[in-house]
Amino acid sequence: MRKVLVTGSAGFIGFHLSQLLLEEGFAVVGFDGMTDYYDVRLKERRHQMLLQNQHFSAHVGMLEDLDSLRSLALAERPNVIVHLAAQAGVRYSLENPRAYIEANIVGTFNVMECARELAIEHLLMASTSSVYGANEVMPFDELERVETQMTLYAATKKANESMGHSYAHLWNLPTTMFRFFTVYGPWGRPDMALFKFTEGILTGNEIDIYNNGEMYRDFTYVTDLVRAIRLLIDVPPVRPTCADEIVEGDSLSPVAPYRIVNIGNGDKVKLLDYVEAIERECGREAVRNYLPMQKGDVPATWANTDLLNRITGYKPHTGYREGIRQFVAWYRDYYGR
Ligand code: NAD
Fold first, then answer.
1. 126 CA to centre of ligand 1 in angstroms
2. Which of 150, 193, 208, 223 has the highest Cβ tally under 10 A?
3. Are strands 206-209 and 216-217 parallel, antiparallel or unpaired?
4. Nearest-CA neighbor of 294 among 211, 181, 216?
5. Is the CB of 177 under 6 A from ligand 1?
6. Domains of the chain
7. Pocket test for ligand 1, best of 31, 180, 269 (most atoms within 8 A of CB)
8. Cα first-last separation, the chain
């Protein structure tokens, strides 16, 4: 049985990915620090659900604690590591920047060290669309220059991409970096817009809409996203022997088994259309509090997903109205509202 170590397994994406991998017959070793960035009970519930499968094991530990991570990795000897644990959130990085350095820089370094020591078949790690920063030409594609990160969160993820490349090169460690675009769906994060909007609408509280609603996002439904990750697990990058081997449009490094892949829906949705769809699902209108653009935020994201499609044959497809329907149904059931 193939075994995958998933860091951040009690997190939103890690939970969904672990569920999918278990369904597909993998053994999953979950590792998560259960940090209190948002409601820990949600993380505990996710782990509890996963533990119903005998091929899942849950381990609580911090990425920064190399000993705990390393002893787990050496005892379990996974074939693959999917590194999702991180201090996430664009806005919180203005309040508590140090958490990003610790979890995302030191923590990711520790994961890479374990992957190197075990000579892992494939290391896959989460980056973000935020690395595109102030780039304006849309849709964003993996080959463009990304030099204008707007927050420390984005900067730590860009650093992770460089760190990953160096280890892939030095230790011949096949490494795929994902750039995720605004992921949403059931069991989603309480700090993200869909959760806050749904909560506000159902409780009659004001919802904050930034940049007066002139915002666009490529919203990616979590089930599609984890399907893409699962497929990418089977496509470890291979170091090319010469530059001619690299197909046009592929982000494969010329000197390392290393590739960056966007995972987005490939569509750009206006925030106000998204809000309207949530109102429709909730059967109530929102009390809207229009605000200026937030520091560090970007007005739009939109993924070119051609590379994902070319490598895996897969294209995320769930429309935002359907995804919102699933989320609101989960939210109402979970919180009894
Ligand atoms: P999440 O916060 O729900 O999950 C992250 C998990 O990591 C949490 O359960 C948390 O307890 C754990 N964690 C945080 N710091 C840790 C540490 N120092 N040691 C051990 N565990 C720690 O977030 P998510 O939305 O599931 O995001 C997963 C990954 O995807 C992250 O790397 C995030 O940066 C990236 N990402 C997410 C989105 C999105 O829209 N959700 C977009 C782009 C990138």
1. 9
2. 193
3. unpaired
4. 211
5. no
6. 3-181+220-264+303-317 (3.40.50.720)
7. 180
8. 41
Q: Tokens for 158? A: 């860009």
Residues 6 or more apart whose Cβ sits within 8 Å of residue 27 = 1, 2, 3, 4, 55, 56
Please state the atom number of ligand 1 nearest to the C-alpha of residue 65. 19
- The helix-helix angle for 40-50 and 12-23 (nearest 10°) equals 0
d(CA 27, CA 29): 7
Q: What is the mean pLDDT of each run of 10 residues along the chain (337 residues)?
A: 98 98 98 98 98 98 97 98 96 94 98 98 98 97 97 97 98 98 98 97 96 96 98 98 93 98 97 97 97 94 98 98 98 95
Q: Tell me how far the alpha carbon of residue 190 lies from the centroid of ligand 1, in angstroms.
A: 12
Question: Which of the residues are catalytic?
Answer: 153
pTM above 0.90, yes or no: yes
DSSP string, 112-159: HHHHHHHT-SEEEEEEEGGGGTT--SSSB-TTS------SHHHHHHHH
